[in-house]
Specification:
Blueprint lengths: L3 H17 L6 H16 L8 H12 L8 H31 L3 H24 L1
Helix pairs in contact: 1-3, 1-4, 2-3, 2-5
Length: 129
Amino acid sequence: MRWAMGLLLVGLSATALGLWLPGLPGAEALVSLSLVAEGLVIAGRLPALSLIPAFALHGYVLSASVIGWESTPIAFYLLGLLVSQGSLLVLSLLGLRRFSQGLAVSQKQLLAGVMVGIGAAFTWTALVA
């Protein structure tokens, strides 16, 4: 839970960056690839700090839906994003902690492999489509 506020800040900062500098090429594919990174973190192949760029990518991509809006709707969008993403982050961290405590090491490795496979499939789809 000590990560929640920091990751939320990283994501929202990247959303603001996306409003200022839109159009990062391949951002959707990189977001899909971040699922691979999450699986590698679960498998113990990457340090947990490697998730910080993944959250930044997610935040950056969330800015694409508001390009061209007026300032007031953007402010309310960012406020809603703060509340919704903050709630989702806290609930998912609590749920994952409860779920992962009952898993054996082999089950965690299987979960990591599934996440890597799904992330790789989504990345391939984003690159090909």
